[in-house]
């Protein structure tokens, strides 16, 4: 049963996280910390969303850009009970670009948010199967956006990159003879202060400092053997999006609301089955669900609410080398936004029948 711990790895990086709630992307996994012995991995993935809507008969066109996800991890077993891992991921991000010349009120609007994080985590495993883990996370964020309304630039902002530090803490329980593992991890908020330059009707080249505080979250992950060569796995991720806001000084003055905020927290559920076919090949299938509310307006820079996705994964292992790949198809939940259609007048724009396709690839090495 111990060898059945392949399942989560077979889901592979970004292939299983397309268009998660808010601007969530990587899921902040610390799975490498639970690998046997000494271990290193490198992963990459790409997600291609197709998101479009319409207002008063005007179609937005596909406003969601394809993006890439990179990840890496190194895990060292210091003693029989003590280990550590260093993990690189890109936890949050946004890429919005409304096509020009569509007649849509926001045609030409763009927004980009990038993040990267390095996590150092330490784990102590006790004789009774329980373990504790914790560590620190260094995160960098930068962002920029141009808002176009009716073909004219109404607002532009650049938030220079800045670093923030947070922490993680958790507990786990394992029974290797049946491939059982349950882990619970809390990820703290991380705050960073960004030198910001804004151009709007309020003024040109106006300087301020904008705080971006990425949200706290909790990951509950599990796996267990249910039959010979068969594993069930899954998890729940809660993210505190209702406490998240990006609020540059002049944007609120010009438009009367924060630049980006969310009304509700998100709960993302995953359930899957992994199967080992022979000594070298394994496969998995999983489903991901996130509830949404199409009646509450969301941001025009992220017009999605909820999702349902299916991920297929394969894994090849030979000696100490493992190669995993995955493909994900996600049906994105319907959403409504408020779009400016005249002086001080907005109308609901409806986004529906949208999808995303993701591919991921991971190479792992036990040594």
If you had to describe this structure to a student in words, what would you say it looks like?
By secondary structure, the chain is mainly beta. Helices cover 3% and strands 62% of the residues. It has helices at residues 7-11, 249-255; strands spanning 39-50, 53-55, 58-59, 67-77, 82-89, 94-97, 110-125, 130-149, 152-175, 180-187, 190-200, 203-214, 217-227, 230-239, 245-246, 260-261, 266-276, 281-290, 307-318, 321-332, 335-342, 345-351, 354-366. The strands form three sheets. The chain has a 14-stranded antiparallel barrel. The chain has a four-stranded antiparallel beta sheet with strand order 3-2-22-21, with no helix packed on it. Strands 15-16 form a two-stranded antiparallel sheet. It is globular, with a radius of gyration of 22 Å. Mean pLDDT is 91; it is low at 1-14.
Tag the structure with descriptive keywords:
367 residues; mainly beta; Porin; 14-stranded antiparallel β-barrel; four-stranded antiparallel beta sheet; 2 helices; 23 strands; 3% helix; globular; OMPP1/FadL/TodX
Could you name the CATH homologous superfamily? Answer: Outer membrane protein transport protein (OMPP1/FadL/TodX)
> What is the number of E strands?
23
General form: globular
Low-confidence stretches: 1-14
Q: Please tally the helical runs, counting DSSP H or I stretches of 4 or more residues.
A: 2
Strand residue content? over 45%
Question: How large, in whole angstroms, is the Cα Rg?
Answer: 22 Å
Q: Strand order within the widest sheet?
A: 1-4-5-7-8-9-10-13-14-17-18-19-20-23
User: What series of H and E elements makes up the topology?
Assistant: HEEEEEEEEEEEEEEEHEEEEEEEE
Mean pLDDT: 91
Helix content: under 10%
- Total domains: 1
CATH class: Mainly Beta
Going by helix content, strand content and strand pairing, the class is mainly beta
| Architecture per CATH nomenclature, i.e. the level-2 architecture | Beta Barrel
Strand count, sense and closure of the main sheet?
14 strands, antiparallel, barrel
CATH fold annotation: Porin
Taking the alpha carbons of the first and last residues, their distance comes to 20 Å
């Amino acid at each position: 049963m111990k060898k059945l711990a392949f399942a989560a790895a077979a889901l592979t990086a970004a292939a299983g996280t397309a268009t998660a709630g808010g601007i969530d992307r990587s899921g902040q996994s610390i799975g490498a910390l639970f690998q046997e012995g000494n271990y290193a991995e490198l992963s990459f993935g790409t997600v291609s969303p197709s998101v479009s809507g319409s207002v008063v008969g005007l179609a937005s066109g596909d406003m969601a850009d394809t993006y890439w996800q990179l990840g890496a991890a190194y895990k060292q077993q210091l003693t029989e009970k003590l280990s550590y891992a260093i993990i690189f991921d890109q936890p949050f991000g946004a890429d919005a670009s409304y096509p020009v010349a569509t007649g849509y009120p926001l045609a030409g609007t763009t927004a980009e948010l990038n993040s990267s994080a390095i996590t150092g985590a330490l784990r102590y495993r006790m004789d009774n199967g329980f373990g504790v883990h914790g560590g620190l996370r260094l995160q960098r964020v930068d962002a920029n956006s141009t808002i176009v309304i009716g073909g004219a630039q109404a607002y532009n902002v650049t938030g220079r990159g800045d670093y923030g530090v947070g922490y993680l803490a958790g507990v786990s329980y394992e029974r290797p003879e049946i491939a059982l593992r349950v882990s619970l991890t809390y990820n703290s908020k991380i705050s960073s202060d960004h030198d910001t330059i804004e151009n709007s009707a309020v003024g040109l080249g106006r300087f301020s400092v904008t705080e971006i505080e990425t949200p706290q979250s909790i990951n509950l992950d599990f796996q267990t053997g249910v039959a010979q060569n068969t594993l069930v796995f899954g998890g729940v991720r809660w993210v505190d999006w209702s406490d998240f806001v990006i609020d540059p000084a002049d944007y609120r003055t010009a438009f009367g609301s924060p630049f980006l905020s969310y009304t509700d927290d998100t709960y993302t559920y995953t359930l899957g089955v992994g199967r080992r076919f022979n000594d070298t090949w394994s496969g998995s299938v999983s489903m991901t669900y996130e509830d949404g509310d199409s009646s509450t307006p969301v941001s025009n820079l992220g017009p999605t609410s909820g999702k349902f996705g299916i991920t297929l994964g394969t894994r090849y292992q030979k000696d100490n080398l493992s190669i995993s790949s995955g493909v994900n198809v996600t049906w994105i939940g319907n959403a409504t936004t408020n779009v400016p259609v005249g002086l001080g007048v907005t109308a609901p724009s409806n986004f529906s029948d949208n999808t995303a396709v993701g591919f991921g690839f991971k190479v792992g090495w036990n040594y």
